[in-house]
Amino acid sequence: MREMKSEDLPVDADRATLLGRVLLPAGPSPVAVRDGRVIDLSGQAPTLRDLVETTAWHGRGVDAGPMDGAPLLSPIDLQCVKAAGVTFALSAIERVIEERARGDAAAADAIRGGLETRIGNDIRSVRPGSEAAAALKAALIADGLWSQYLEVAIGPDAEVFTKAPVLSTVGHGADIGIRSDSHWNNPEPEVVLIVNRAGVPVGATLGNDVNLRDFEGRSALLLGKAKDNNASCALGPFIRLFDAHFTLDDVRDAELTLTIEGSDGYVLRGASSMKQISRDPLELVRQVMSEHDYPDGFVLFLGTLFAPTQDRDDAGRGFTHKEGDIVTISSPRLGTLRNRVTSCGAAAPWAFGISDLMHNLGARGLLTEGRS
Predict the structure, then answer these.
(1) pTM above 0.90, yes or no
(2) Which residues contact 92 (CB under 8 A, 6 or more apart)?
């Protein structure tokens, strides 16, 4: 299901600057989309990372053909993949539920109502790191309701982690992977910022930060196993660069919709509103950059409001993925990211790493001195 259709583009694609990557016969190539056609920009910049660091390519490139049917790849290459977690009040409550249920979906429903009633409004009303947040923390500790997840929800330090290795992300139309030993999991529809080497956000795309609730619920120390698995990070369809028609304020106002369609006839619909995020995107970028340099830039998952509680099979067990689920994440200004669920072992193996890319670009004569 690799095909890319015009209807998957932003509603105002005619005035959007869209960058991505396709697999041309010669190898992976950075491209732009103009008037429904793919423009090969590899002659101007060998990697997507180079494209976001320079504007010299604007108005240039080689027509590579119609967009429909293009073998689309993830729209990033050399950037580090970072993610911020527990950035919405609802996601904070769900993480506390996972922790208290010890990763048991059947126990979660019994815990959910009480926690939402007791701490939901309080979490929504405070600014993370503020004096009011510190006072709320003291009160929750006194009531025996404190959690490590609440620490990153309302404390001064956000949860920021490395989601996936460089070049391991998958794009629109690819299969996404769920660990075969996970029995409680879900997609996470998110806006993803593209940040250049100077720490400046230059664009955005859509992402699916696949989540294994049973693993992370058993222990936060299992975050690596819960998040970093083969084909478990999807991005796309394209990066939309910031310009006069699309700015960081559009990210702050973004509304995401999600649909999960199972081969068993099951349908789940959800949404995530960036207006309800607890920390501003620029604050999250600042925390990523506070003690670390990223000479190739990075992308940053901003978190999600979406937390599926609708039962799929047995009452009280909530939602979990099944093989063959189609996950569709959409936002009017960013387009549509669509993927099919499989197991990590059955997903396409990740066999093309950084050295493979460099050898390919070198053989094509695309590596020259003086690039950004």
Answers:
(1) yes
(2) 86, 123, 149, 150, 153, 154
Q: What is the pLDDT of residue 3?
A: 65
249: amino acid identity, one letter: D
The per-residue pLDDT for 181 is 96
Domain map (residue ranges) of the chain = 6-76+354-363, 80-89+156-343, 90-154
Q: What is the DSSP string of 267-307?
A: EEEEEEEGGG-SS-HHHHHHHHHTT---TT-EEEE---S--
Alpha helix segments (H runs only) across the chain: 48-52, 89-101, 105-125, 131-142, 148-154, 213-218, 223-227, 248-252, 281-289, 354-363
Give the tokens for residue 21.
């990557």
The fourth-level CATH superfamily of domain 80-89+156-343 is Fumarylacetoacetase-like, C-terminal domain (3.90.850.10)
Nearest CA among 343, 325, 299 for reference residue 81: 299
- Which is nearest to 228 in space by CA: 293, 169, 159? 169
3-state secondary structure of 241: strand
Closest CA to 334 of 269, 262, 267, 274: 274
Whether residue 63 contacts residue 69, with contact meaning beta carbons closer than 8 Å, is answered with: no
Per DSSP, what are the bridge partners of residue 328? 259, 338
Cα distance between residue 19 and residue 62, in whole Å: 14
pLDDT given for residue 369 in this prediction: 61
Digit-coded pLDDT (tens) for 257-292: 999 999 999 999 999 999 999 999 999 999 999 999
Residue listed under structure tokens 């490139």: 61
Count of CB atoms within 10 A of residue 130's CB? Answer: 12
- The 10s digit of each residue's pLDDT in 109-167 is 777 777 777 777 777 788 899 998 898 888 878 878 788 888 888 899 999 999 999 99
Gyration radius of the chain over CA positions = 20
CA atoms 278, 280, 283, 285: torsion sign? positive
pLDDT of residue 55: 74
